[in-house]
Amino acid sequence: MRNIKPTFVAVFMLGAFGVWGCGQQKTGAISAKITELETRHAKLEEEYRTVQANYEQTRKKLNQIENQRTMLESEKSDLNGQLDKVSTERETLRKQVAQRTQERDAAQANLTQFSKDLQALVGRVESAVNGNSPSPNATVIPASRRTE
Question: How far apart are CA 136 and CA 59, in angstroms?
Fold first, then answer.
């Protein structure tokens, strides 16, 4: 036994104290800690699944909104095209209205002048009839009603 080395004895003593120290711990505390960690792990996994499901739903909603946005953009471009077309038609109609208004004003001016000329002619005819009339009982027969 004299050949036992001191390092061998130190290792043996260290191992014995380690086994004794592990035996001194309360096994309920370790199992409670393990149970607590397992519970936390299960909760985290459940939260991960919930977050993953929410992510998928949000992704689907995002895709739907993107599709809707592209449809609205195409509709907007169509409406802009229609707006341009309607604007040009409106300008054309404005020009036509202005032209027709000028034509109406010119026709009204011509009609007013024609009315004045007719009134002047009627006045001359009346003065000629009144001035050349030999008898006050003279009748004027229009040329279209003469039977000659």
Answer: 107
What DSSP string runs through 109-129? HHHHHHHHHHHHHHHHHHHHH
In which residue are the tokens 């909760």 written? 43
Type of residue found at 126: E
Element (H, E) at 6: helix 6-24
pTM above 0.85, yes or no: no
- The pLDDT tens digits for 58-92 are 999 999 999 999 999 999 999 999 999 999 999 99
- For residue 111, CA distances in Å to 12, 101, 127, 138 come to 136, 15, 24, 33
List Cβ neighbours of 78 (8 Å cut-off, separation of 6 or more).
none
Contact 140, 126 (CB under 8 A): no
Query: Under a CB-based contact definition with an 8 Å cutoff, are residues 129 and 140 in contact?
Result: yes
Run of H or E residues at 44: helix 27-132
